[in-house]
Known about the structure:
Layout: E1 7-10, H1 14-25, E2 30-33, H2 37-47, E3 53-56, H3 59-64, E4 71-74, H4 80-89, E5 98-101, H5 107-118, E6 123-130, H6 132-138, E7 141-145, H7 148-161, E8 164-165, E9 168-169, H8 179-207, H9 213-223, H10 231-239, H11 264-275, H12 280-292, H13 295-302, H14 315-348, H15 354-360, H16 371-381, H17 392-399, H18 402-414, H19 420-432, H20 439-450
Amino acid sequence: MEEKYDFGLVGLGVMGRNFILNVADKGYSAFGHDLDAEKVQALQDEGGHHAKVNATTSIKTFVKALKQPRKIMLLVPAGKIVDAVIESLLPHIDRGDIIIDGGNSFFTDTDRREEYLQERAVNFFGAGVSGGAKGARFGPSIMPGGSKSAYAHIKPIFEAVAAKYNGEPCVAYLGPRSSGNYVKMVHNGIEYGLMQLTSEIYDILKKAGSYSNEELKSTFSKWNEGRLQSFLVEITSEIFDKKDDLTDGSLVDQILDKAKQKGTGKWTSQNAMDLGIPVPSIDVAVSMRELSALKAERTEADKLYDRPTIDEIDKEYIEKIAEEALYFSFIVTYAQGLHQLAEASKEYNYKLDIATIAKIWRAGCIIRAGILADITEAFQANETLPNLLISPTFVEKISGTVDSARKLVVLGAQNGIPLPGLSNSLIYFDAYTSTRLPLNLIQAQRDYFGSHTYERVDKEGIFHTEWG
Length: 468
């Protein structure tokens, strides 16, 4: 009898091919499927040993080659194509088989698909996979959600292929239904925020500090050896070192300042508004990508207005406050995203463990950073911690850096250098730590023009006043 394969994967693009090779490297036989014969051939050529890793363009052959219960992962673009692949699998799979969507699907689509497949006795998982192509090949962070009993069949493979932090695999069962895709969505929202913040620090160092690319590389490299240690700071230092093949300069200077997006940051922001959770550092990161797309308008508007003359700042001074401001705003951005996860867990009954989520982000994923070890400890110490800013550990970290954030935001405003991520992080912090905000006036205005009522500070109840 022909030996069957342990794991199946549909979608043999770069991510899919790398993930299936990772599975094979960890001792599991893996079989792939793609309608593109060239991608099938590329996997066969790279995989070499076809008894260990192989592929086909035939969906029927693919399903037949897998051990039961079949474990089939999809690494295809989010949207209608996921539904199409599921429909192509259904005539060939059996009750109890497991389909895993490893793409960035919107969480409500995952809930819909799980319900649809439950009626056919097929298990469905949404599993966020972070780490890019390199992570998929050598160890990503994986965020699965779905049937806990079905996860037992997937767990050994996922733990084998996931990134490791001090020997611990960066994967864990997160909760029911769409919890995995939801956590990955917020992960990506945090990612948007951190990338925006990093770009702003680059901008002010270059414009106000007159940093060369060599100095920028050295600075970010040094920061990566300290408390800002993170994947994004690390690759930022490497970006400044890359020379352009077409000119004598650096590649980063030849890249057009129009940032694109695939939607996960926007979803995070939109859903946070639905939940009533403030995530301004993420909101503005999404808005800045949209604003960056208005290149022609920005260029024309730049000709119409005088800009402040930028006075060069002492490099030692600006580097110090920039490092502290970036650390401050990184903490605040993580705090916002984790607050959203905690509230979503209540709203959607995910029963998320925030400490576990922080643990599996410590390696493999795009937002991995040294600070996540401290975040993990903070939520382990207090499982009901409402916000990271309340943690005694982070009160100390924030207190030591917030003044530099204020100075840098002022410096940016005085010199006409936009720092919206840093500004919004500071505004969030100042508002969150204010006993009294001026929203009493807004409530008075609402009651004045719309009889929307208000509450009082000195007695219980709901009140309305005839103002005119």
